[in-house]
């Protein structure tokens, strides 16, 4: 991933040097497992732990000849050792080391992502409670519908984040797996006790059955989950983008001193951060297809998945970390124009209360069809001529025979629509 979208802590996990570090960690753990079984002298393991080392540059030189990165790695490590070098990579195959090392790095990445998710969930909760009673118009099909609050919109996001966390907890634990089962997964040359030791040491889950590799449906599920989280962020960002439009202008991304919105037009304040979230979500979703195509492999394994994962695993976790961090900053500093929200409620001349008024008429004994056919022409006249819907109602003789002025005033009171806000917040867990 390019530096622009890479936060240092997450980026460090996916460096080539850290890849080799985790490979060495697993190689040493395998030897420790063998030593516990009495196969390898403990003194040799101590020498390996003390002296085993590598250099990225030397591995690259060897790989240029061997065309095999694991062989290049083990040969470079062996150069740093004495006779105990014979125990490096003993009984195992490349993916025993690679997949288990991936599990270590997934665990490291997931710790960061979990922190990001919890931070954003907390920020959404704070903002939802702050704007719990900030009335605004709800829109369906992009058209004014009925009153809601900005807090309710955020409460929906909070509920979505709870689901994101639930999905992430499951998928992350599934992919934090290891396997040390040998060339075709039969444990023929390395017993299950070694795998158990290695996985326990690194806090990984030993997969119940493998071939030469961990089954890639685990990874597909993981990437799908990250893709869905990215998509929910796009959903949030799309809403902010829409509400920032000039003709709506109910919220706005924070515009810092010295910031420029356009190279040509000095007045511009564009929702560029949210647009960035939406664009990156497309990239993350694209990786889902690649992850799914990595599942069907030939027989006990082939290597077609490897090149894909070298790209999508770092890039997906790096991008999602960046997106979660950036959207948390967007929301933490979001400017909310509550007065504008109230003003916008009135631009449809009171038509947003048509259903409430319709129900009032039904309650007087009219059929739904009669009430609808009485109200709809008044709404059309109000909209096309820009006349107050309430005035048209008050001047209609049929309506005045059925409803008092108090009834009419009550029908045009937005507070009626908000009477269950506390209940919804309680149900969401935002008391």
From TrEMBL:
Q: Which organism is it from?
A: Acetilactobacillus jinshanensis
Quote the cellular component terms of the Gene Ontology held in the record: cytosol
Please report which protein family the annotation says this sequence is part of. Belongs to the lyase 1 family. Adenylosuccinate lyase subfamily.
GO process terms (BP): 'de novo' AMP biosynthetic process; 'de novo' IMP biosynthetic process
Keywords assigned by UniProt, alphabetized: Lyase, Purine biosynthesis
EC number of this enzyme: 4.3.2.2
Q: Which SUPFAM superfamilies match?
A: L-aspartase-like
Please give one Pfam family short name. Lyase_1
Q: Gene3D superfamilies, alphabetically? A: Fumarase/aspartase (C-terminal domain), Fumarase/aspartase (Central domain), Fumarase/aspartase (N-terminal domain)
The record's section on CDD domains has:
Adenylsuccinate_lyase_1
Q: Where is the Adenylosuccinate lyase C-terminal domain?
A: 349-429
The protein's name: Adenylosuccinate lyase
